[in-house]
User: Fold S-adenosyl methyltransferase from Asanoa siamensis.
Amino acid sequence: MRDEQPNVARMWDYHLGGDRACAADRRLADAVTAACPEVPLAARANRAFLGRVVRHLVDLGVRQFVDLGAGLPTGCDTHALARGSRVVYVDTDPLAVLHHRVAVVGNPDATVVQADLRDPELVLRHRDVRHYIDFARPVAVLALAVYHLVPDVEEPAAGAAVIYDHVAPGSYLAVTHGSADESPDRAARVGRLYADAGIALRPRSRAEIGAIFGRFELVGPGLVAVDRWHPAAPRTPRTPAGWYGGLGRKAGL
Ligand SMILES: C[S@@+](CC[C@H](N)C(=O)[O-])C[C@H]1O[C@@H](n2cnc3c(N)ncnc32)[C@H](O)[C@@H]1O
Assistant:
């Protein structure tokens, strides 16, 4: 029954002000917000980061994007931000995949693949990914607000290392990630709420998030609070505590 199990993609949509959450999603999302009032703000700041980082990459000449853990489309998604670029959305969630499939109908440059980013080889070698993305040319891989849903300590860094080896020099990895650095008690409460709903959450420290980039060299302001990252666009009113974002580049071009 759709209402029984909260779903992170729909909860994220709810935090962003969307209308696709069911009662179970809303209950858990409201409890999360009660435990940590910054979460909806962090969700919006995270999407604003997506907008800035994609526009920045387009300005740098990047025309290919793989958006891992894409979530539900918001109407301001990677293919809309990077018009004319090749975009592949990846998510494990059939609902997120379905919604993105509808969002890209009629767009010959964008597609969506249902796959688990914890198997990066499978994602990168997926027939549809290879059809849309030319890995001999620079590509930007986006992993926004998703690696904290991968509980294994080493897995995101190991996955990013596989991505690094697969992409051409001049490629990029963008990551945003929740941390418990600023308020460990709140993060622990949120973690327990998710765990009670059967969803594993692993906030990482800023140092652990930095380690995910591995050989990708951090560019711009480095790994900073998401709304501090190239804040040329209008700022969100407050910096969400402990929500980091960064962009790494594979050197060589
Ligand atoms: C919080 S949403 C983030 C959506 C979007 N990236 C953003 O920043 O607004 C996380 C998404 O990651 C997806 N996800 C979680 N674990 C995943 C995995 N192992 N592989 C692929 N997608 C995953 C979820 O289904 C959900 O749609």
About this structure: The first strand starts at residue 64 and ends at 68. Residues 8-9, 12, 46-47, 50, 68-71, 90-93, 96, 116-118, 144-146, 149-150 surround S-adenosylmethionine (CB under 6 Å). The beta strands are 64-68, 86-91, 110-114, 140-144, 172-178, 217-218, 224-225, 243-249. The chain has one domain: 41-182+205-249.
